[in-house]
Amino acid sequence: MGGLKSVERIAVAGVAVVTAVAGVARYAGWPVLVAFGAATVALAGLAWVVSFSTEQVGERFSPAVTGVLQSTLGNLPELFVVIFALDAGQVVVAQSSIIGSLFANALLVLGLVLVVGARTAKDHVMRFHPRLSNDASTLLLVCVFIIVLVGLSLGSGDRASHHVKAISAIGAIALLAVYLAWVVPYLRGGGSASEGGEPRIPLSFSLALLGLGGVASAFVSDWFVKALEPAILQLHVSPAFAGLVIVAIAGNAVENVAGVVFAAKGSSELAISVVINSVAQIAAFLFPLLVLVSLVFATPLTFALAPIYIGALALTAVVVWQISGDGEARAFEGWALMAIYVILAAITLYE
After folding, report:
1. How far apart are alpha carbons 231 and 189 in whole angstroms?
2. Is the pLDDT of residue 298 over 90?
3. What is the distance between the alpha carbons of residues 129 and 86, in angstroms, rounded to a whole number?
4. Whole-number percent of the chain with pLDDT over 90
């Protein structure tokens, strides 16, 4: 583990131990809540491992490339969780975990980044280039547009409402095309060296750590989903709360702690890149990709959501654009985003 700080060595070793415990809990018949808790902690830890190793690889490139790379590979646990949930027939959990990731990153994590970044700045105003935020808002709005239209069609009962699966597949292909049309020029014009610092560990070790983290995430995601339904029953929480809060934070938001760390170091461009890229990618890449992948399952994933989440997503897209679109943010704006997330989580708790 050459190049790792002592605290990082301890963290990596701790994740390995917790992952092993989660495996034992899954196959040794431990109590459901213990197995679920171990899988949750292991999933969050592996998300950090993937995030850390991706950061080390990405520091050889520009903030744009680093942000996209970290978002892409950091979403691996979330991808596996949704696939295993669909395979288990838990469509509500699969769907709510995706939109939960959007809410967690766009509200909770971005809010934390803005608060920390603003407090770090000399004049208490976090500044960053507005292009990425505006682009991410556009991608999120395109995704919301499809979701709103599907919701209106289902609500009115028109003829299109009987073809939600086909409409979702077409919308997914369109979203992926828009994402590719955005990400390629974005990466090409992303600038040069990252402002996050020099990589401290060799590239070969970073890639090995990344590979192990990704493979382990696949196994732990399966254990996590297997323990999720009985845990929901024992905890007396709704599937929506489990997906929008527990799964989203364990599988996605924790890995974006890197954005908060960058903000604390004053690397505002890199901090915003990591978090906003994740929002854009979940909305315009991960969600539509999973819609297409789900076509092989008995119950496919679609863009049909409950009205309350349609409204929440639409308002989230507007709020994110309004707060970050000018390239400046103050601490209270970050607190506002986190307050919105808490309110949304409270609503799902009582569903």
Report:
1. 46
2. no
3. 38
4. 38
Q: How far, in Å, CA of 145 to CA of 165, rounded?
A: 16
Q: Nearest-CA neighbor of 279 among 219, 242, 323?
A: 323
> CA nearest 150: which of 310, 313, 303, 308?
303
Low-confidence winner among 1-10, 145-154, 206-215, 273-282 (lowest mean pLDDT)? 1-10
Q: Tokens in use for 318?
A: 């507007």
Mean pLDDT to the nearest integer, 101-121: 92
Name the strand (E) or helix (H) holding 126. Answer: strand 126-127
SS3 73: helix
DSSP label at residue 189: T
Nearest Cα residue to 287 out of 99, 51, 132: 99
Query: Whole-angstrom Cα distance, residue 345 to residue 331?
Result: 21
Of residues 278 and 340, the one with the higher pLDDT is 340
Q: What is the pLDDT of residues 238-252, one digit of tens each?
A: 878 887 888 777 766
Amino acid at 157: G
Q: What is the CA radius of gyration of the chain?
A: 19
Reported pTM = 0.83
Distance CA 178, CA 320 (A): 20
297 φψ region: left (φ > 0), alpha (ψ -120 to 50), beta (else): beta
- Strand (E) or helix (H) holding 329: strand 328-329
- Concatenate the DSSP letters of all residues of 16-59 into one string: HHHHHHHHHHHHTT--HHHHHHHHHHHHHHHHHHHHHHHHHHHT
- Under 8 Å between Cβ of 78 and 252: yes
> For residues 98 and 304, what is the distance between their CA atoms, to the nearest angstrom?
13
What is the distance between the alpha carbons of residues 177 and 292, in angstroms, rounded to a whole number?
A: 13
- Please report which helix (H) or strand (E) contains residue 127, including its range: strand 126-127
Is-contact 113 260, C-beta < 8 A? yes
For 100, list phi and psi in degrees, rounded to 5: -65, -35
Q: What's the token pair of residue 73?
A: 């590979």
